[in-house]
Amino acid sequence: MTALPRALGSTGTGGSPTATDRLLSVLAAFDHEHPALCLTDISRRAGLSLTTAHRLVGALAEWGALERDESGVYHVGLRLWEIAALAPRGLALRQIALPYLEDLYEATHENVQLAVRDGSDVVYIEWLSGRSAVGVHIRVGARWPLHATGVGLALLAHGDPGFREAYCAGELASFTPHTITDPARLRRELAEVRRTGVAVSDRQITEDALSVAAPVRTADGSVAAAVSIVVPHADAQVPVLVPAVRVAARGISRALGWLPERA
Amino acid sequence: MTALPRALGSTGTGGSPTATDRLLSVLAAFDHEHPALCLTDISRRAGLSLTTAHRLVGALAEWGALERDESGVYHVGLRLWEIAALAPRGLALRQIALPYLEDLYEATHENVQLAVRDGSDVVYIEWLSGRSAVGVHIRVGARWPLHATGVGLALLAHGDPGFREAYCAGELASFTPHTITDPARLRRELAEVRRTGVAVSDRQITEDALSVAAPVRTADGSVAAAVSIVVPHADAQVPVLVPAVRVAARGISRALGWLPERA
């Protein structure tokens, strides 16, 4: 159930790659394992000739999408970052959420995250690191499958029912003996998340961490993101964390235009 | 001295735009004033025919660089944001700096910023908003000319001497009666910043705000960024803020591999 790697050089509907495909394949050559690449690496990873890679990398560098350091290695550039900061599900959402995440951090001093769904994964768009040394394998831009994280359970529980059922029926990757891999158990967990409004993921990614998550809603009531706190499993006080996480999630929802229904 | 707008559709060395130029012109159509665009807007702002814009926008949307909402409006997409998060001067630097910025925020509860230089501007790559209602016209991705901000003075003072002199000799934009517009005064200020290690910008952008900034160094000792705090001018306690800002800047510098020389 981990996300399939997207084809680097394919955006068209078949046939030979277009100029657009080739340019995007240069950008897609960069990822978390490869944040800095020389021209040869780019050409190999993008499946382009050195001549074509040289021409495209030159154009991207001139425009500011890539930056070349003294040693000739290319990095993603500040101009691409500035444009990407406009992504409503990236920095723009983060900007609205940040004061509430700061409040949650100040109230708890634990690891605080904001995540959205992309396909079968959660993508973390904000992460304030707490004082506890819990083994949190999270960074901004990191991905994990939905069923294994608190934020993922919150997003899956409140998302489209058709998508949810397809996800539950698919293969559920396992990371620890505690990861939910039984579809029936996952369905029960998700029903419980909908009932309580809170998702708890206990040692599903690492043996030492527990997360508590709550959904973030937009003006139309749909769930756009989830907030979570990750703490060491050993001394996790779930009943204490739940209200704090819920208050933060509701605060962000209000800032996004959501108005709670009168019960 | 404000940055010249970069030509939207030009990356080549003249002549008719290439396929690369056209694709980048679609991305460049999005900015802080235009974070959401319909196809017609994109075609007009990018200087492309509707047919060409339709084809390029389709390819970018399929790849995930753009996302289309229910109303047919396009936004910058999560996949572009994920790749842009790899920019060493964007989110990557921010990720290293964030714990120190959080500490500075907790110690002061004021507006805390991290900025880098791009051409004649500072670009804010992080901003934690404090409790004070000072009129801070800053957001992530925002730009201001170097001479008018604390972070800009810190970056200009410690940057390349040739660039510094060219900047001082250029036109210095004015925002308030307090903005430094006299080249001789700017040179004196910058010498003082180098001497003290701290830059103070007093009511240069708005009449009510004062900022205190310090440089962030990398392993080779060069200044890569600056940290600042912005407070209301009326009750600014500069001597109190200076040590806190300097400690945060040195902490980030150490995390970037800088080792202070023995004096």
Automatic annotation (TrEMBL), chains A, B:
Domain HTH iclR-type: 17-78
Residues in IclR-ED domain copies: 79-258
Keywords per UniProt: DNA-binding, Transcription, Transcription regulation
Coiled coil (UniProt feature): none
TM annotation in the entry: none
PANTHER family: HELIX-TURN-HELIX TRANSCRIPTIONAL REGULATOR, ICLR FAMILY, HTH-TYPE TRANSCRIPTIONAL REPRESSOR ALLR
Protein name as catalogued: IclR family transcriptional regulator
